[in-house]
UniProtKB/TrEMBL annotation:
This is Putative nucleotidyltransferase MAB21L1. GO terms for cellular component: nucleus. It comes from Ovis ammon polii. Transmembrane segments: none annotated. Residues 362-459 form the Mab-21-like HhH/H2TH-like domain. Its main location: nucleus.
């Protein structure tokens, strides 16, 4: 049955040339010239959410956008149509058409084509594996070479910082061919997390009033003098992320002038973040942070959802024990807010927890393919998409498909298709909820025109992969 549904998905798309929507409340009109229509409910949950939602609402219980309601109550899919339809209209209908849970009044079945079902699925997986071995591995090798070059410069700068201020000790260490605290934003943009010591005299306060953020407050006013960071504590008893970042930025600027790589590295101006430009090609953001292990933020207490079997209890325990980071960086969700607590807030980050969740099966391979496609085809003006958006959507796809068998190598094509369709839906709705913090929108602050352009480009990409897997050789 699973193979039949997969074949039906591809068959519908391969025969699909046009979509038409009928006004709400009016029955769909079937054209006599094009009699082979397929009536599909239009306002269905997106293909990666795994549950139906009320048509009057714009999102599922998990906060994932569904196709917007203005596309009509019902969509009439025509297999023969003379005119094309723009990508923004195609995508929501396509998401419904490819949803294996969708109800169809007129089932599509052709016994002559069913023997090709498994072959078509295997063909897509074959070309995806070939793409991974050729394009993705080449990308990984190039980024690994860049990381080694970048980390030499950053390590030298941080050593100079440590000489000036011993409280900022470099934590950029290589372990098992991997640098602790380093995140790849894009092939030319990186973030290095510098872990600080002695958070013990502060209480972690997360009441949900600051989406994606929390504050650190003295547990006892009498312990102020005991803190290693006493001069960065406000009169209200908060440890100010902004003050620490400002001090660190001054130290890094001085270190850049003294380090042995001063001819190839310079500070990025006009930002409160600590950013270095290396050889005029790479940008590295260095972010002071505290590592919080053994605790879990209240704003993420809803996770895991009780009705979803993924991940299992053992993996949940591992993830929560891994904890999270508190970063001293600007938070876009607090833009324009001026209160002291908000300007001193720390940004929540779950990088290690997310990495642990996405272990096993073809999850990492799927993410690697998505990152490569993004780098090659979705690096657009306004920077609407980055690798973290792809990582987030993989986590949501894991919820939709909780069984390990759903992430077998043979299912790679289905998982990739589901994620691309969900990405189109999120871009059209201009909302991509953070996986652990659904009240935090990862598209906040992105230009609407950039998101619309990304939706069109993602649609073209998804259509090319779905209808012609061999095109991956040129993508």
């Amino acid at each position: 049955m699973r193979h039949l549904r997969a074949w039906l998905q591809r068959y519908r798309l391969a025969r699909l040339e046009s979509f038409e929507s009928d006004p709400p409340g009016r029955p769909p009109q079937r054209s006599p010239e094009r009699p082979w229509g397929l009536r599909i409910p239009g306002c269905l949950t997106s293909s990666t959410t795994g549950a139906f939602a009320d048509k009057r609402q714009g999102r599922t219980a998990r906060g994932i956008p569904r196709p917007p309601p203005h596309f009509g109550e019902t969509l009439l899919v025509q297999f023969r149509a003379p005119r094309p339809v723009s990508p923004p209209k195609l995508a929501p209908a396509l998401a419904a058409a490819l949803d294996p849970t969708a109800y169809c009044e007129t089932p599509v079945y052709n016994p002559d084509l069913c023997p090709n079902m498994i072959a078509a699925q295997a063909k897509l997986v074959y070309h995806l594996n070939k793409y991974y071995n050729e394009k993705c591995q080449a990308r990984k090798a190039a980024i690994a070479k860049t990381i080694r070059e970048v980390c030499k410069v950053v390590s030298d700068v941080l050593k100079e910082v440590e000489v000036q201020e011993p409280r900022f000790i470099s934590s950029l260490n290589e372990m098992d061919n991997r640098y602790e605290g380093l995140e790849v934003i894009s092939p030319t943009e990186f973030e290095v997390v510098l872990y600080l010591n002695q958070m013990g005299v502060f209480n972690f306060v997360d009441d949900g009033s600051l989406p994606g953020c929390a504050v650190l407050k003295l547990s006892d006013g009498r312990k102020r003098s005991m803190s290693l960071w006493v001069e960065f504590i406000t009169a209200s008893g908060y440890l100010s992320a902004r003050k620490i970042r400002s001090r660190f930025q001054t130290l890094v600027a001085q270190a850049v002038d003294k380090c042995s790589y001063r001819d190839v590295v310079k500070m990025v101006a006009d930002t409160s973040e600590v950013k270095l430009r290396i050889r005029d090609r790479y940008v590295v953001q260095i972010t002071p942070a505290f590592k919080c292990t053994g605790i879990w933020p209240r704003s993420a207490a809803h996770w895991p959802l009780p009705h979803i079997p993924w991940p299992g209890p053992n993996r949940v325990a591992e993830v929560k024990a891994e904890g999270f980071n508190l970063l001293s960086k600007e938070c876009h969700s607090l833009a324009g807010k001026q209160s002291s607590a908000e300007s001193d807030a720390w940004v929540l980050q779950f990088a290690e927890a997310e990495n642990r969740l996405q272990m096993g099966g073809c999850r990492k391979k799927c993410l690697s393919i998505l990152k490569t496609l993004r780098d090659r085809h979705l690096e657009l003006p306004g920077q609407p998409l980055n690798n973290y958006h792809m990582k987030t959507l993989v986590s949501y796809e894991c919820e939709k498909h909780p069984r390990e068998s759903d992430w077998d190598e043979s299912c790679l094509g289905d998982r990739l298709n589901g994620i691309l369709l969900q990405l189109i839906s999120c871009l059209q709705c201009r909302r991509c909820p953070h996986y652990f913090l659904p009240n935090l929108d990862l598209f906040q602050g992105k230009p609407h025109s950039a998101l619309e352009n990304a939706a069109k480009q993602t649609w073209r990409l998804a259509r090319e992969i779905l209808t012609n897997p061999k095109s991956l050789e040129k993508l």
